Amino acid sequence: MTKTKKTEFRPDDFVVYPAHGVGKIMSIEEQEIAGLRLELFVISFEKDKMTLRVPTHKAIDIGMRGLSTPDVVSKALDTLKGKAKVKRAMWSRRAQEYEQKINSGDLLSIAEVVRDLHRADDQREQSYSERQLYEAALERLTREVAAVSGTDEAGAAKKVDDVLVGRAA
Q: If we measure between CA atoms, which residue out of 132, 123, 125, 127 comes closest to residue 164?
């Protein structure tokens, strides 16, 4: 096993953890677990008041990644401008696909979910589960846009919202 994988992430780096979105590496610590010494990333998800410990040697395998490049963020925002692509499948099947996209940690997939579930004010009501998925995807997208552009979440939310609202025009 190569040691190079570990050094990619450092304390104070923002990272994206697939199942939880953007977090910040607070430290790297060693712990003994079941008689093995393990090196762990201590990642804080401030908004969720959650701390996660991830073995450094597993971080890449589980899909942990650095923040997207500004280029990818632009592509994600462009994705929002597209026309919603809603499959004719049953809702339970679509919901499952949306959830997989959100938890993939892939910003473009998350943007597709936001695009497909976004409703303008004059459109039909969303079901509770649609709104839950939409809000989860929107929050993931917004947090990463904020972290990449170095703005606060409110600023990022406005940026995303402007794209979504502008799309209807």
A: 123
